[in-house]
């Protein structure tokens, strides 16, 4: 090969690799694929673009992120990790323990993250005293989303007890409506389960069963009652629930086909994306029995270790954008969640957002703020998945309530 030819080839290779990994570009793995979620991703992509950082999209559909985490594992095993990854709670800790995450301490110190990120979130954003993730929001998961026109038509006022909640759903069913919009996917079953655990047992029981994994709590009569309530909820779900995506369930409430959905406040993102307003066409209230408590999860961006200085610079630009107060407002207005910083006024948020922010602060102060099991903030993924299996098997009628509680004890023991 002539020298000239060799030079040309080298130039071609360089040109190719700079297109594949453009200067200042982040490849972002996330599971934000519904209408509201995609709109929220758009705010992040646009913010980065205005700072000259490109966005290589790596969406993996599937609420709750289990499928995204499977894809992530495959990418890392293949030696090709994405630069930035949406991640929840204990998963962040697992990846940090593997030494896979970039250290964000210098940026965090420069921007004073420690002063503005609540302790409940820092517990997951930091590992071994170092910042390994930037939190973009706080979602709370013990919400009911309701169609207000349907409530008015049925003469239903906001239920405040489990009995009133059941009575409201009976009224909807009697009038020929679907009482509870739900998608039969393990993470959705687990989301409503979290609220039943809190509603039946209260904060101490939630702590004992979901966080401390105390076998006595897991197998208790209280837990049997939790499963009884799950069966009651199952009775209010329509026949086509199996496998339905959460946003399609939300659409049933939006369209007036269903009265209620129990779901985290990403559901609000769907209402807002459909042009609806909280307190007008839809409303939100805490799952009856869980008032005064908040189960939460926080979407965070973890940066995977990369060696290319351009890629590292892009990671820092992204982390910095994510943590900016202006961005946290713009993003969370669309996403349905609330900011991951404590120094942001709530006046731009709607009724549900303002309630969410106030109740989050109150619960944190009162000691009634708990990580959601369903969303990876109560226990490690191995335990979480073991719980998912039992909850879904029971929801689908494989176990009665007493058997389910006993199975939960065994499954959790094996998973640890
Ligand atoms: C959660 C995530 C939210 C939301 C939801 C449904 O785990 O934290 O941001 O998108 O899944 O996809």
Which terms summarize this structure?
416 residues; alpha/beta; D-Maltodextrin-Binding Protein, domain 2; 2 domains; 19 helices; globular; SBP; signal
Which SSEs are present, and which pair or pack?
Elements: H1 3-20, E1 25-30, H2 35-50, E2 54-59, H3 66-77, E3 84-88, H4 89-97, H5 105-111, H6 113-116, H7 119-125, E4 126-127, E5 130-131, E6 133-135, E7 139-140, E8 143-147, H8 148-154, H9 162-174, E9 178-180, H10 186-211, H11 215-218, H12 221-235, H13 246-254, E10 258-262, H14 266-273, E11 282-286, E12 294-297, E13 299-303, H15 309-323, H16 325-335, H17 351-366, E14 369-371, H18 381-395, H19 401-415
Parallel strand pairs: 1-2, 1-3, 9-10, 12-14
Antiparallel strand pairs: 3-13, 4-5, 6-13, 7-12, 8-10, 8-11
Helix pairs in contact: 2-14, 2-16, 4-7, 10-12, 10-18, 12-19, 18-19
Residues 31-32, 37, 63-65, 88, 139, 246, 266, 297, 299, 375 line the site of beta-D-galactopyranose (GAL).
